[in-house]
Write the structure tokens for this entry.
Amino acid sequence: MPRRVSPCGYTLVELLVVIAIIAVLIGLLLPAVQKVREAAARLTCGNNAKQLALAAHQYHDVRDHLPAGVNVIIGSSEQFPAMSWRVALLPYLEQGAVWAEVEANYRADPVPFLPRHEPTRVRVLSVLTCPTDPRQQQAWVIDGAANSHSTFLGVAGIAVGDRTGALYYRSRVGLVRVSDGTSNTLLFGERPPTADLDYGWWYAGIGQDGRGDLDSHLAVRATNLRLLRKYGYDACPNGPYPFVPGRVDNYCSAFHFWSLHPGGANFAFCDGSVRFLRYSADGRCGSSATRPTPCCPPWPPAPAARSSPATTDPPGGGWGKPLAMFRTTADGRGSVPCPCPGRGL
């Protein structure tokens, strides 16, 4: 009697079982892979912040103060008008060739938004970016000008213009003046470029107030000054804005620190350390954003204020004294330091 030969292959039921098992395994592995990728991106972002923080300390070692959050804007004798603090750190980031380009650009044309500067503006410097945001990995043409962006903005203080942070308009903050302790005071943090990519240029910027706010630095309780007159921003609340999650397509996310990392953002402190702060630490951001408490009202002053910070440089370059704020004199012709009780000024 001939032997019966079993047919080769799998039955439909067996095939379906195998497919189901593979689908379950993929479902289990994909979230793990995504978490590993995010962890790697967050680590890279933190390492970039660490390099910037160390570069800021090297800058301080040479000049006895941190770089200005942004230099005086166009129309002055400033050698590098509107240049951001990130550019000032280039020589300490092993980017000497790019810094040489910057110097040549400004010698040829002091306005950094004109075509002479464009070949440098479009450079994508990975140390200034975060890999979680693909928009930062290429240059963009905005309002006819090509630019690249950065995810790191200096911490200017609590409110717009109060000049109590480490990096703000024409700042020259020495670490010896950080009386709350360098390990407790924020230096810079993450805030991705704005929804229209108009703010967050790495090279230069004038921001919403003409003094770099939203572009090179940001207050931890920033407000919408409603000076932009642009689609999207006018619809945003006045603020102040807390440390909360944001979105790349939300114009209002321009007014607060946030990141594309789940749960929080990387911040560098004045001691050179980098820490991942969770959104639940919003209150800590407020207390860590300042050096000494300001002695004068923030800029712009309230309408009823009897004194206000000087809007022009006081004689002798007084803005270089980080422990004193300035107010206009009674005759409106000059400015004097606001005395800080107990600080000898």
Observations:
- The CA atoms of residues 266 and 276 lie 4 Å apart.
- Helices lie at 12-63, 85-88, 96-108, 118-121, 282-288.
- The chain is about 25% helix and 10% strand.
